[in-house]
Amino acid sequence: MADSITEQRLAGGPRPDLDLAQAEWQSSTQGVGDVQIAFVEGYIAMRNRRSPEIPALIFTPAEWRAFVVDAREGAFDLT
Fold first, then answer.
1. Order of strands, edge to edge, in the sheet holding 35-40?
2. Domain assignment of residue 20, yes or no
3. Which of 4, 37, 39, 79 has the fewest CB atoms found within 10 Å of its own CB?
């Protein structure tokens, strides 16, 4: 049985229940958009700045890297 949150997640377990109340949310350095991220307990949380009450998406470092690489390559460009 996996002991740590990271081991549980890597084993395909549920997402961790992170305490985001004290998270330091960061916005784009360009000040554009509504997405904010926070680094919490080895994970990356992402939320909508305009609706912070909606649960944040939680990524492992590997998931976050894949997301960022795909975004840079235009995988999510809808135009």
1. 26-27, 35-40, 43-48, 57-59
2. no
3. 79
